[in-house]
Amino acid sequence: MLIKILFIVLLLLMVIHLFRALPSIIKGQSSRPLSHYLGHRLLIAVILFGLVVIALLTGIIQPNPSPYTL
């Protein structure tokens, strides 16, 4: 259950960084460059992907079985 909450928090952080970069995209001026926000989103995505892979390999989460196999 804790890992699912962590996934949700990381996804929310990605959305927050997306909206923080929005004024920089629209106005073209900001105190920080656009790459700063996009770099944070990329880092969060890499962490999230790594956590999913680790959770799958350790058995903490299980993928859905294929509906095509009997």
From TrEMBL:
Classification via InterPro entries: DUF2909
Annotated Pfam families: DUF2909 (PF11137)
Superkingdom of the source species: Bacteria
Keywords from the named record: Membrane, Transmembrane, Transmembrane helix
Residue ranges of the TM segments: 37-61
Protein name, per record: DUF2909 domain-containing protein
Origin organism lineage: Bacteria, Pseudomonadati, Pseudomonadota, Gammaproteobacteria, Vibrionales
